[in-house]
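Dear support,

I submitted the protein below through the web form. The confirmation email said the job was done, but the results page showed an empty box. After a refresh the structure appeared. I'm attaching both so you can tell me whether what I see now is the final result or a partial one.
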Amino acid sequence: MANQTSSLNHEARAEAFSALSALAQAMSAPARLRILQFLSNRPATVEEIGARIEESIANTSQHLQKLKHAGFVSDVKSGVKRTYSLTDSGIIDTLIQFQEIAARMKPNVRAAEETLCPPELCPDLPLSHVLEEIRREKAILIDVRDEEEFKASPAPSALSLPLAEIKKSLGLLPKKKTIYAFCRGRYCSLANDVVRELRAKGYKAYRLREMSHEIEKAMAEKGN
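What the results page shows now:
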């Protein structure tokens, strides 16, 4: 009986690690990681994904099939188009943790992150303090992603001010309040241009490293 139990445990352990290895292998391409990052913001078609990650439709389809086979994405067909989405929000958490580990372990990743998310544009405060300022109406949170992303994955209390509309919307933002802008996370530079534009107009503005998923989770934990 003991030998049988030991054998079953060995098989179960081997099966678990084999499955983990398969999942890791499915993510082992930059294009697939970029696809997962894109889908963290909204569902999208093959054409939209290909345009975002700068890959051909054929290559994008192949990457999506590998991610689908691994269980990371699912698709819904509408006419001749298929729309892909993440199968679990935990995938977003995994991506974020992976990025954080990479920044701690790899100097080149830290350097790339500081280029995409310059420290001088970021607040010195932790996210919890930023959200407290927003809760107390001392600051305003703006989402500079496109409207589709804002609708698909909104952060509570955030105003939608896409980069293309920021100049004509400046009059809507009070200069007495701090402005915190966010986009698609630490590897996205959209918020940089917005913050620089706001600062040039006399606003006290910063960009957040976090994406909508992180902000929403942090707000839920604080009970905002």
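Response: this is the final, complete result; the empty box was a page-load delay. The two ends are 54 Å apart (CA to CA).
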